[in-house]
Structures are given as C-alpha cells and as structure tokens.
Amino acid sequence: MRQTPFDSEFSRNRDRHAPEPGVYEPELGSLPASDVSREDLQNVNQTGTTTIGITTADGVVIATDMRASLGGRFVSNKQVQKVEQVHPTAALTLVGSVGGAQSFIRSLRAEVNLYEARRGEPMTMRALSTLAGNFARGGPFFAINPILGGVDDEGHHVYSIDPAGGVMADDYTVTGSGLTVAYGTLESLYEDDLSNEEARRIAAESIRAATERDTGSGNGVYLAKVTAEGVEIEGHTDFDEVL
Questions:
Q1: How do residues 136-159 score in pLDDT, each as one tens digit?
Q2: Are 38 and 30 contacting, i.e. CB atoms less than 8 angstroms apart?
Q3: Can you tell me the distance from the alpha carbon of 170 to that of 211, in angstroms, rounded to the nearest whole number?
Q4: What is the pLDDT of residues 31-83, one digit of tens each?
Q5: Which residue of the set 47, 49, 89, 175 is catalytic?
Q6: Which domains does the chain have, with CATH numbers?
Q7: Is 173 exposed, middle or buried (0-12, 13-18, 19+ CB in 10 A)?
Q8: Measured distance CA(70)–CA(78) in Å, rounded
Q9: Where is 160: in which H helix or E strand?
Q10: Is 49 a catalytic residue?
Q11: What's the predicted TM-score (pTM) here?
C-alpha cells in the first residue's frame, strides 16, 4: 500500500486540521466534572430514609417512611412518596438526593417503555435490575441506594442497588439511614412464605421502629404491594392504620 510522505502537503494539512485536545471532552463513558461543592450538597433535599423490600408468597411488599430533610438537619417535607412504579409489575424506592432519585426513576421508566415498544413484551426483573445498576454506576444521580422490587415469570424479586452500581438480590433488604434499627425489627418478625398482608404489617412495624431513633426517617409510611396484576401504593400518616 502506498504511504503518504511524512512531509507532504497532505500530511501537513492533516496536522493543521487535527482537533485540539479537549474539543470533544468529556470522552465517551465519562461525565463532566461536577461543580457542586460540599456546601451545596448540605442544602440538597435528601430523603434520609428507611426503605424496606420483602419478597412474599404473593409477590413483593415495599415500605418507606415519608420524611425529606435538608442535609439531615431540617425537615423540609413530611409527605414525600419515596416509592414509585417503574414497570407494570415493579416499583423502586427513593434513597439519597430527591432530585437524583426522581431523575433515576424517570430514566428507568423511559427505558422500560422503549423496551416494551421495541420487543412487544415487558422487561424481566433481571434485565431491569441490571439496567438500574448500570444507571447508578454511570449516571449523574448523586449517591442513591434504592430498592427494586418486582414480579415476572421467573418469580418474585427484591434487589438492593448500591451507589457504585452493585446489584444484590435477597429475600428481604433494607436501605437508608434507619437501616440498623429496621433490620433488627424485620429479622425478628420475618418468616418464609409470608402473605402480602403479613409482610405489610411487618414492614410497617420496622419503619415505625426506625422513625423512633433515626432523625432522617419519620412522619408515616408508604406501602407498595406488587403482584402479577400490577402495583398498588398507599400512604398512611398513622401507623395504627396498618398495624
């Protein structure tokens, strides 16, 4: 093959028109550097939060508290719905910055809708959990640690998704600032093959225990019931309505 001489006119033109370093930054796979300072993060609405996911004989139950705070010091909202439907038979909790979690949920919903439109079938929970992990690892969502719970042809599933994109499946899981208290209550009451109603009461009791000690959690409970028929979400400011 003919080689172009290094000092030819073509070679010199190529060098003159070569892109300057940094023109196409950020490179593929990277994100622009954030200009959010540590002081800025103190004023971000954060959910603090205690969230719980439990697999049951009927499907999945997810429970969360209702409190949002500024930097964990000031209660900014007492009626935050921290669990949202993201799939015909799956729901996801909000943990971390409110804006980041909301953006995360919108992105998942869009991808689920595109998948179903292109393939004519709903996304499986394994695929959805993998997608959520990829988003958490590579997206500009701040630090989030949600729970994904859903039902498909392969069974009933609960996943915790860490800020680095790790996805872990389990029979039950807890995330958020109140997790240590909630885990103690949950594990003392949990049994295999719970019904959805039994799991709702256990999850609500665990959320209530966390709100007694964790300042980032409080003001009631949201409960999501996930079955093959769909997702039902309801909120209660009085725990006695559920227990």
A1: 887 666 667 899 999 999 999 999
A2: no
A3: 24
A4: 444 444 555 444 444 556 899 999 999 999 999 999 987 766 788 899 999 99
A5: 49
A6: 44-241 (3.60.20.10)
A7: buried
A8: 12
A9: strand 155-161
A10: yes
A11: 0.80
